[in-house]
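Sample intake sheet
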Amino acid sequence: MQKIKCIIVDDEPLAVQLLENYVQKIPFLELVFTSDNPITVLEYIQNNEADLIFLDIQMSQLSGINFMKIAGEQLKYILTTAYSEYALEGYEHNVVDYLLKPISFVRFEKSTLKAQEFFPIRDSAHSHFFVKSSGQQNRINFDDLLFIESIKDYVSINTENQEHIVLETLKSLENQLPDRFARVHKSFIINLNKIQTIDGKNIQLISEKTIPIGETYKSDFLLKIKNRSIS
């Protein structure tokens, strides 16, 4: 099972301990970091992978709302708060849900199930995953997937027959795709099995779609192609 990497940030130690205990009971969550200092968490996410943050709104060093403004939209958030009036303001950001303190496990579990819908789900055979689009879960077969393109706060997932527009980040998808896929540009991930030709600056897929090669990703991409050819 592909786990969701989560962080807890709350300046109340007992609140952190409670959420830690809850996270351990959810099989698809993986706790990677906790802190009572939001500044420390901002530093952590600059250099480490995470998907979901359980974020207290009212903290002395930095409010949860300001934290989200600084951290940006690459993460999903579940807000924890003792004040229900903050919930609507939080939904202006990339917020999945909010939990009103004191938090019961039943309510916590419901919130995490809601969060799970925002992340692709791979089966154990690694043959497909699911994405939520148009109000439903859509199966995407890896063998049919041509490329994924970032479009502002959304991604366009392109198969041989369909396109799905999903509220997601390219980074989170990249972390969950198998080795046959590669990031070749800040806005593109491609299926290496669908490459027709490569020149110095572009990749042409078998669908005749042309994908640019970003300089930042070029050396890693070419090395991956070389290793596949050798193997």
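Comment: The chain has a mean pLDDT of 86. The first strand starts at residue 4 and ends at 9.
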